[in-house]
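Session log. Operator J.P. requested a structure for one protein chain; no other inputs attached. Running the standard single-chain path with token output.
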Amino acid sequence: VDFFNQINMLYGTITEFCTEASCPVMSAGPRYEYHWADGTNIKKPIKCSAPKYIDYLMTWVQDQLDDETLFPSKIGVPFPKNFMSVAKTILKRLFRVYAHIYHQHFDSVMRLQEEAHLNTSFKHFIFFVQEFNLIDRRELAPLQELIEKLGSKDR
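Structure written below.
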């Protein structure tokens, strides 16, 4: 939930730069393009702009977090058997927002003087997903160089 809130807030600061015109495709550099499918409303992945993709993604994640059967809020209510799978999918997709921001909008982040916050948020996210092996290494490829830099300073 905290990662979702942080990414949502960080992306919110650059939405004026991430438009249908500036980002007609959801990408993280020239080698990585993401298509949206939620498995319910959109079963076959569709190509869409970055703002549309991120809107779909944030709405989908919020729906998951609000689902009491997936994320029970009452004490003593167990998490479902598929919880880990859903959590991994959420985190994998949230990573794509970081990747898009770093690849397509880092200049805007710098102009807004938000790079320290973005880097701290991303570092916390990466250390968490790596500690618990929550995102496949191949999925992290668009930011692998940055991930190695962040990790080398502390280890």
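Operator note: The helical segments are 2-12, 50-66, 83-111, 115-131, 144-152.
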